Amino acid sequence: MKRVGRGLALFLISAIVVSCVSKSKYDDLAGQSEHFRKRAAELRKQNQELQARVDILEKEMSTYTVEKGLLQARVDSAVRHAAEDIQKLQSMNQQLVKSLENEIKQGEINISQLYDRLSVKILDQVLFLSGESAIRPRGKQVLARLAETLKKITDQWIIIEGHTDNVPIGPKLQDRYPTNWELSSARATVVVRHLIEELGIDPGRISSAGYGEYKPVAPNTTKEGRTKNRRIEIILRQM
């Protein structure tokens, strides 16, 4: 009986020990399982957030692609129009050179083009007598030939600039033109009025400005330089 009792006691003790170990292992596994479950939930949430971000980025990329296409189309259109404008001015340049051939050969008129800007420089002796702002008959003939070409293109600004050398106005003329500012402005204005009133240029696209001696194209230290600086400059520029 004693042996049976001892055996039963040992069996019960073993069962209890095994039961405790199994429960501890179960609790440990259950804790790990809960940890992994929470981690899986966190990863799913992060994945959802990342997917939402990917969707936003894909939408932004799609919008960017569309905007890039529109911008490229506008750039292509601007380049095309610029090329057309330059070609128009080149054609006008050729017409002006042909109609003003004699004056160009004599060095009285200079025509130049820089991209979309065309400049016609006319020495003052062609248009005016010394110290005067009334246009000479010969100058009117030159302006008439010039106007024939100007009226063919209606999408260009026409800017008339008056320029002088740096020689001060003489005493006899100072009552009318105190400085070269007044003389250059008066001459530019007279040319504008003649182009509008006598030659039919649209007044909505023409303007004048006087710069006096302050935009020289040659040194004022020589007679030749001063002659070049006394000029009317007609500038054509795209509207």
Describe the fold and architecture.
This protein is of the alpha+beta class and 239 residues long. The protein folds into two domains: 32-71; 87-238, 2-Layer Sandwich (60s Ribosomal Protein L30, Chain: A), CATH 3.30.1330.60. Helix content is 61%, strand content 14%. The protein contains six helices and five strands. It has helices spanning 2-99, 101-105, 124-127, 137-150, 180-197, 223-229, and strands at residues 109-114, 117-123, 156-163, 206-210, 231-238. A five-stranded mixed beta sheet has the order 1-2-5-3-4. It starts with a helix and ends with a strand.
Bin the strand percentage.
Answer: 5-15%
Broad shape: rod-shaped
- Determine the CATH superfamily of the largest domain: OmpA-like domain
For the largest beta-sheet, the strand count, sense and barrel status come to: 5 strands, mixed
Architecture per CATH nomenclature, i.e. the level-2 architecture of the largest domain: 2-Layer Sandwich
CATH topology of the largest domain: 60s Ribosomal Protein L30, Chain: A
Determine Rg (CA atoms, Å): 45 Å
- Which segments are poorly predicted (pLDDT under 50) over 5 or more consecutive residues? none
Strand order of the largest sheet: 1-2-5-3-4
Q: Report the helical percentage.
A: 55-70%
Instruction: Output the structural class.
Output: alpha+beta
Mean pLDDT equals 85
- CATH top level assignment of the largest domain: Alpha Beta
Quickly count the domains.
Answer: 2
The tally of strands reads 5
Distance between the termini: 123 Å
* H/I helix tally: 6
